[in-house]
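Please predict the structure of the following assembly.
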Amino acid sequence: MIQAAFNSFLAALLMIPAATLFCRRDSRMRRLSSLLLLLVLLVGAFVAGVSFWRGDRLALDLSWVTPFPFALTVDRLSAFFLLIICAVGAPVALFSISYVERHYSGSKADWMWALLPLFVLSMAIVVTASTAFAFLFGWELMTLFSAGLILIDGDSERRLHNIFIYLLMMHAGAAAVIASFFLFLPHAAGLDFASMRVAAASMPVGLRTAIFLLSFVGFGTKAGIVPFHLWLPKAHPIAPSPVSALMSAVMLKTAIYGFVRFTFDILGGGPTWWGYLVLLAGAVTGLLGILYALTEHDLKRLLAYSSVENIGVIYLGLGAALVFMANNAPAWAAVALAAALLHALNHSLFKSLLFLGAGAVADATHTLDVELLGGLLKRMRVTGTVFLIGCCSIIGLPLFNGFAGEWILFRSFIAGAEIPGISCAIVLPLMAGVLALIGGIAASCFAKLYGVAFLGRPRSLEAEQATEVATSMQVSMALLAAACVALGILPGIVLSPLMALAGELLHTQALSDAVFPITHTLPLIAVCVGAVLIVVAGVRRIRRISPTWACGLPALNSRMQYSSAAFSKPLRKVFSRVYEADRTVDVEYAQEPYFPKSIVYRSVRTTSFEKSLYQPAVDAIVGVAARLRRLQTGNMQVYLLYIFLALIALLVFMRFA
Amino acid sequence: MNLAIDLMQVLLLIAIAPLVRGVNARLKVWMQNRRGASVWRPYVDLLKLFRKEDMVPDTASPLFRLAPVILFAATVTAAALVPVLHASALFGVGGDFILLVYLLAIGRFFLMLGAMDGGSSFGGLGASREALVSALAEAPMLLALTSVAILTHTISLPGIVLATVVQNPLHLSPVYVFAFGAMVLVAIAETGRIPVDNPSTHLELTMIHEAMVLEYSGPSLALIEWASAVKLTLIMALLAGVFAPWGMATSASIGAMALAPVAFVLKLAVLTIAIAVIESSMAKLRMYLVPDFLGMASALAILAVAFTALMR
């Protein structure tokens, strides 16, 4: 039954786009396909959920259709990520119904409903693939379909440039992934995961290391770890909001899936330094991600950088798991891995909620610039409330879903002190400090975002005239917010199967639930906070509305409020080393030095990676290419000479090889 | 029986919090050779504020009035995690220091939002500064407590107390010294005392917490003031419980329970006097020296964690 549901889930995702594109410019057809997509995603979530909680295995072999072995298998790990895709996809699809109706018409809307199912399908293929071919097939399609979805919003030169960088980096990453697959070839019987797993056990150390490093770079590029994160804040914000939600919340997780599948399942862990490398990547990614997010004033760019940060947190968990595995503590490795996966699920829930919220804000105010918003909670009660829940979740406040994952991560870092090796016993507990610092800065960042965008006075006419968005958009966001709160109070629902999953993956007996008293404490905390809230809210408070005290001036206006830039200034000053802003001040004087006619102040933050890592690389490639151009003279005789030289070289090679 | 004791501990902490403030203010006044108000003054102030009107800025959203309630609820819940007289807490072994730190973060986050909702520049100013201090204070606090948790092999606060109380105070690991140093610095920053913040200032150049609550009045202000008093007392109780738990009751026997309040009051008195001395003898740090101050706390906390591994 479940197997049939899975097969029809995949088939339907393929049929919807075909039907949509067949009946073009038909709004009833679009409506039908959007509802179908919603239904299909619910079926998918059901299939994945059953398989995840019960541990059923599903399989689908399509090798008879394709020239390469193409097989899909759903084990617990795949089911978990399939669950993320479908459970987030369904509210996003619901949100898209009104969003697409309001923003696109004609062929644009057709393409939206055609590409969305295909995008979901490609991600589903990636997380269920059990052969290299199927995996890479899905992997490439995922990039292309998402790029197609970004293009729907327009193809100005700037956008094309950003999409170009996205595609370029994705293909560089894919090349590394492909290379890591091919490195198995001499040892593995075939390029399916089962025989790769067998082969990995008997491979020489050097080869294993090469495979690990390649997959680290390849999947890291897709996940957006620093310094491969460059594409993320360029590509995510320019997509339509539901697509941004899918890209940030779901697509990044496929990279986590790939990394877990490769490193934990197929390679079965490695030496301690693998763990250290991943921990370092996680710490740097988390800290820089949130520090960059702090300075952003564009709602979606800020959220994109915050995705970078959360990927860093997930990598911290994966790194800790690798360190535990290398030091004969598989039970704690399972805990750290479960924490990373739990955070992946949580991030996909609250990040999709926040991106949809950003979409709703853009829908109501036509801007994403935080400095032009303000006072939205008063005008958009539902959007404002669910966005607040998203913010509370993302900074890991207790009773919201971000907390449980971070708590378990803290717990496993502290357990690192039990490892006999002295370096591990110092490094792992110190990572708790890194995580706390990331959390602290994230709290400031989202206090700024919510305070400036949703509270206080409106900073523009658009914000002042904002009204609540369509009901289906509200419902979709409310569903995600409800999931955030439910998992925040009862994290045990997903934690127990996740522990089972991590135990299966690492072939170890999972630690008992006693390690996580938090799963029992959180409901009690909820009751306690709730009880005090009710009691205190019952205190008689006579309200009188009056204007804010303006120090005797006539009235305050919105320009007198703290702006987003001003709010983050103290932290930016503390971490000024990280930002390296290029500042120029041009003053034109009417009369030196006292009376300036005009002052132009420019401050551009080029991330130092663009300047010091990518620009030199691009310059070097362009330089080499320019030099190589001299070979192309356009002269026929010279080309004949090349062919002749090549022939000689080949003959010499054949003679001696 | 134990449940009754645990419940009583929480209520005690909430009830005496304003008194701690009053005593502290009185001590400061005495050191500065002035005549001050009675130590019961904070209670009278709270009572007065609860009877007054709640002035709400016309631009504010419902969050403005919700924020103090959430702050109070989260702080009270955090107080239920800390062992005070008896080495147990309302949430039992499930009450760990990570939860404590993050429960305090709830209140801080909502207070920052409430401040931003006022729509004046003072609220944003205070929230922005609070964001700086809290972002940098969380890591040393967690690391310092982590080092103690590593030594005692438990993360639950009652567990830490039970493991420390049986040790000879003179043979304590030096890790405790570093962790205590870090925790004291963080506690000063967290509770907004000199040299990080000045609770009695109303000068926009210096204020942090006071700027955030500037728009609040009446019952809302009372809740905020009470919550911050509870926070001060609970952090004192945490310092006393984790680093000097001797005297705390480990069983519910009459003798132990009779000694415990005496020991607790003594420890509280020492800490209150220490705060009063620091606040009377030091000037507030410049805003941008606060990160250095917290950097010192972080360095101490990192040393504490490193020493747990080096001294095994």
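The CA atoms of residues 244 and 634 of chain A lie 47 Å apart. Chain A has a mean pLDDT of 91.
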